[in-house]
Amino acid sequence: MDPISAVLERVLEEVRPLDAGEVANYIPQLATADPDQLALAVVGPRGRVRSVGDDRVQFTIQSISKPFVLALALEERGLDAVLDHVGAEPSGEPFNAISLEDITGRPVNPMVNAGAIATTSLIEGTDVDDRTGRIVATLSAFAGRSLWIDESVYASESATGDRNRALAHLLRSHGIFEGPVDDTVESYFRQCSVLVSVRDLAVMSATLAFGGVNPVTGARVVSETSARHVLSVMSSCGMYDFSGEWLLRVGVPAKSGVSGGLLAVAPSQFGVAAFSPRLDEHGNSVRASAVVRTLSESFGMHLLDTH
Ligand code: GLN
Q1: Is 258 considered catalytic here?
Q2: How large is the ipTM?
Q3: How far is ligand 1, taken at its centre, from the CA of residue 55, in Å?
């Protein structure tokens, strides 16, 4: 085993005993996940992927799709147009909160569900398939391979997604988007149901870390400016109502999802991803958070470190 993988293995064994938290069950299909799964991957500037643990297991990307759809919206519309529809303030509230700004009706940020649905509505597309196709193509370009949707998770989300539909209706009542509610929400459910492994997420993270260029394929996926905008929003809003404490304690832009994935970015250094299905009260993976925190402490990844 190479020295870097040995370090990753050590970190994984350090957090393995943590067994707090619960697997998400509000989307019935997610409740079937094996709670003991644990994986970690990193990708450096030359695109070398190193991974340990359950690194080939695929799971749905869920909310980790949000920063990448934001990147696509920024590319298609530009920052000002995006900010007309969704804010950039940490909400201090759970991911599914019904929190819209008083006067404008804008969702507070693109990392909570309301804001992510508004972001998805900005993506061009004549219908659900067209819009979803553009989104999946972008996620695939970030990952450096063709990604697919898990149809059973999608069906499960769509069958139980009334709260997200309600959010979308509220947004539409405020004129945040004009298209049909159903189409937009189905695209959102489909983007959340894209299958990834921890290795895919680490490549996606590295693409943000290296200014929008995928270090594995060498392809530019988004502009350096869009990548920076996304990392800024992840820094302040990526961990829901734990975002402030995460920045304080761990100090890296990150994004979590309810199936247990966590992506963290060390700008210009490497992309990191971890996976373990049990979640804490904020909806962030307990062990994936511990993995990233341990890495950040061991390798001085905190953005505001002065040495
Ligand atoms: N699809 C999930 C939802 O909309 C995503 C939430 C998440 O990962 N936090 O509820």
Answers
A1: yes
A2: 0.96
A3: 22
